[in-house]
Amino acid sequence: MEQLTNLVISDRELATISAVLLKLMNDTNATSAMLIDKSGQVVAVQGTGIRRNATTLGALLAGVFSSSREVAKLLDEKDFRNIFQQGVQENIYTSMVEEQWLLVIIFDRLTHIGLVKVLSKKASDELTRVLERVRNDTSRTKSSVLNVQFRSSVEDTIDLLFRD
Hints:
There is one protein chain. By secondary structure, this protein is of the alpha+beta class. The protein is 51% helix and 20% strand. It has helices at residues 11-28, 54-74, 113-136, 142-161; strands at 32-37, 42-47, 82-86, 90-97, 101-108. A five-stranded antiparallel β-sheet has the order 2-1-5-4-3, sandwiched between helices. A hairpin with a 3-residue loop joins strand 4 and strand 5 (101-108). This is Roadblock/LC7 domain-containing protein.
């Protein structure tokens, strides 16, 4: 399956994704919502408090999700499609959208998990439609955008590794 890094999401599609996340956040009274790919690359973020750490959080949550799928295999389960992490102040509900993306909702202890599950399913269905359009749109030049982003990312990483 094609990885997200090979896909180009237009401003219009990104706005649609952000609107779905914002609606989910508002309807569930969540503090944040994000869409990431299975490798942890952040597609979109809505909410307060996680924007600064979104890249790190995305990578860690993707790792947790991947680990849970391996646990499922050990239990002779096909896979786990949802993860609920409960903390003292914050909870995280992660669900798979298709086989490539993860929808993450961060909410406090006052929000009912049942509401989050039901509304995240509805949001997942909407996101699936948008992401299908992205995947099926071959009219855009994907390699040129990827190269600019990749080059910038590599330069930033090298700068961090070799700074004085």
